[in-house]
Design goal:
This protein is mainly alpha-helical. It has 7 helices and 2 strands; from the N terminus they run H-H-H-H-H-H-E-E-H. It has a single domain, classed as Four Helix Bundle (Hemerythrin (Met), subunit A) (Up-down Bundle), CATH 1.20.120.450. A two-stranded antiparallel ribbon has the order 1-2. Helix 3 packs parallel to helix 5.
Length: 176
């Protein structure tokens, strides 16, 4: 039985993460296991040129979105590791808008990004599945706000659900 079935309470995460948390009903680890297949279905048949599509000026390309999802997953998993292991050091935030241009995503083949995605997801699941009930309930500080390991599992899977919705609603219709 998953230790993550009980959604986090409001004091376990900053209010701006509620958008992600509310997207996950049920076990966030199951969502993390399902999402790779959902992502591949959404991307099926896209050409390399299409993965450079931006639905509006100044928005990220599809590839940049994918690498942003990877960067964010790594950072949130790292936060879960530190907090889950009892580290009480306040963890810094990160500026996603600085990470994306530095990623070089658009110059990478989609197949390479998807391989990295699989590797990162496997590591994230392995980490989350390793936690004890005590670790899942641990509370730490990230970006100046309280966050629990449980909340991070919901935020991780909810963040990806949010970006999958963006692909469906804003990117793919623009390629039709």
């Amino acid at each position: 039985m998953s230790l993550f079935l009980t959604p986090p309470a409001a004091p376990e995460y900053a209010p701006f993460y509620h958008t992600y948390v509310k997207l996950i009903t049920g076990d966030p680890l199951e969502a993390l296991r399902r999402q790779p297949q959902e992502l591949r279905q959404l991307l099926a048949g896209l050409t390399e040129e299409q993965t450079l599509f931006r639905y509006a000026p100044g928005k990220w390309s599809i590839k940049e979105n994918l690498v942003h999802m990877l960067d964010t997953e790594r950072i949130f998993a790292y936060r879960a590791l530190r907090i889950g292991r009892g580290d009480t050091t306040a963890l810094p935030g990160f500026e996603q808008d600085d990470y994306v241009p530095a990623s070089g995503a658009d110059a990478r083949p989609l197949a390479d990004i998807l391989h990295e995605y699989d590797t990162v997801r496997a590591a994230t699941l392995s980490l989350l599945e390793s936690f004890t009930a005590e670790a899942v309930g641990r509370l730490g500080t990230a970006s100046g706000q309280p966050v629990s390991v449980r909340a991070l599992a919901y935020i991780l899977s909810g963040h990806e659900a949010h970006h999958l919705n963006l692909l469906r609603e804003r990117y793919l219709p623009g390629l039709q």
